[in-house]
Queue: 2 jobs
Job 1
Amino acid sequence: MLKKSIIQKKWPPVYDAEYIPEENEKYWYKDIETASQEELDELVFYKLKNVMNYALENSPFYQRKWKREGFHPDDIKTLKEFDQVPVTTKEEVREDIEQHPPFGSNVCIPRSEVRRIHGTSGTTGKPTVFSFGKEDWDRIAHQHARIMWSFGMRPSDLVFIASPLSLYIGSWGALIGAERLGAQTFPFGAGQAGQTEKAVGWLKEVKPTVFYGTPSYALYLAEKAKELGVDPKEFGFRILFFSGEPGAGVPSTKKKIEETFGGICIDSGTMAEVTPWMSNTECEHRQGVHLWQDVVYTEVVDQNTHKLLPYNSEGVPVYTPLERTSQPMIRYWSGDLTTWTDDPCPCGRVYPRLPRGIYGRIDDMVTVRGVNVYASLLENVLRRIDGLGEEFVMVVTRENIMDEVTIQCETLGTRSNKELEETVLNELKRETGVTFKIELLPHGTLERTQFKAKRVIDKRNFRE
Ligand SMILES: [Zn+2]
């Protein structure tokens, strides 16, 4: 039994809006974060039961879905049985929105209580929009603040928000979390032409201590700064935290970011649909993202059976936010690939980890001649090689029946092209077993992004 006062037997939970730990406290809620596994499981299961019952009572989407699938929340008697709950997919949500525009039939609060509308970035198809009620919005801010605390953010920090302040929930989630924590914020929201040059100027003057954005944008910013004669270390960031791309969990990218800026690089993020999206975030020790199980319950499951896998296996993360009342999501299928572990972390938190973060996707990973090639693996290899720029693209083509993958990357001109090409070819072959075509381009040729980098261009036509 959880004896501690902080664990509420109340759902949805109500948190003290004024509470902030003392500056030198290591944990926001020590009682929960360092609970025993049994205590944590009990809290998680209590919340899961409440979320499921709530969805059954309030969500026409889940009422229909579960009836169709012959499932009832009462079937689940223990946490171990939770993996019998059917998963919810992006396609189901998209279909529901099409049939019940504009928000779908999973919004469980009256329209008048909706505080914010956000959505996916819509990189594939029409954006999916979400409604957040006021109470959910406040709880998201609270949980994000709590998680930011774990990587060392404090009220004395000033946070530079570099991702666009748009429909994209990432930037807003970072903003409200930082505000709830009592930090100062500088919501810059890059994305317009010429804005990165301005950012360099402002950063030098305003001196924020924390950066938030995507890893590819941070590296682009560093490149711009150097062009303008500014060493990115001069900005003085002590923490850089990231979401929107897997890069911050890729060891060589993490190293590059830390060496370039001089601050610590923190990987974070799940999916917009299961906000509070910071529930997967590294602590200051940077041993892979912790799964904050009492915020969003994360399972790593078999991609075919959807059953929970033991620690140290590879599978697909499935997410269940535990405090959302405006739009519950129960076992939301991510399609990502990861490996998880419960090896202890020096921070002492009970939460398991993804030591290598999210490193691929089951549905857009490129399979080349039978080998699964992840852009993040290539990134790890390419960023280690001297003489290459930051950007790269893999272009997949099919000639006759053979797949060809051309890696386009940029040379900095510090080594001969022939030697560099051989190094790239050999390193990639050694790491993946695949022989790629290498195409070296002059520095600055590939498209720069102020947001998420596109690493795979698949030109194969599977419908022929
Ligand atoms: Zn830790």
Note: The first helix runs from residue 30 to 33.
Job 2
Amino acid sequence: MPKILLHKNGRIHEGEVKENTNLVVRAGIKQFPYPNLSYGCGMGKCAKCACIVIRGGEQLPAPNWKEKKQLGDKLDEGYRLACQLWIEHDIELSQDNIDPALAARGDGITRIA
Ligand code: FES
């Protein structure tokens, strides 16, 4: 089972998920990484779920068009949209030190823990 490390608010939150898991979907049903993952629309439209991939990024598929549209140059800095990722391998993510301009974007939906 993939092991997840999520850096958030200066702490590291750790959990295991089934293969092919979407972390935003899990948070939506109040399972790890709830309540520590910030997200919004769940559809690649708001970037509130933006994470910096610290380790395990090489296992992920290439960014889709929604990630390219929302993240632009930030993709080169390791940013991904958690709502667009189905996790199949161990991964370490951070929502600490997210670009403030990116974090401030959104569609008015806020479900930040
Ligand atoms: S939750 Fe809105 S883009 Fe991922």
Note: The first strand starts at residue 3 and ends at 8.
